[in-house]
Amino acid sequence: MALSLSVVLLLAIILVVLIRGGSIKAGPAVVAILFGFFLASTNIAPSVNRFLNSIAESISQINF
């Protein structure tokens, strides 16, 4: 749960920076948010979640 909340917060910050920097306009940002919202209610959502969890796990195992 903490990982999901962290990813959502990170993506929200990136989205705000992109909007404020002019890289993305408000309209496409709303479309991207709605796409993510509706994607979460489809059958592919568990696969996306497992993929992101495996990436996060791989990153956490890297020793610097």
Describe this structure in words.
- With 64 residues, the chain is mostly helical.
- It has helices spanning 2-21, 26-39, 45-60.
- The longest helix is centred in the first third of the chain and has 20 residues, at 2-21.
- The model has no long low-confidence stretch (mean pLDDT 84).
Descriptive key words:
64 residues, mainly alpha, flat
Summarize the structure.
The chain is mainly α and 64 residues long. It is built from 3 helices and no strands.
Strand and helix map with partners:
Layout: H1 2-21, H2 26-39, H3 45-60
Number of strands: 0
**Number of DSSP helices?**
3
Helix and strand pattern: HHH
Computed CA radius of gyration, to the nearest angstrom = 14 Å
Mean pLDDT over the full residue set: 84
Helicity range of the residues?
over 70%
Determine the strand fraction and express it as a percent band: under 5%
Shape: flat
Q: Describe the biggest sheet?
A: none
How far apart lie the N and C ends?
26 Å
**Unreliable sequence segments:** none
Which class do the helix and strand fractions yield? mainly alpha
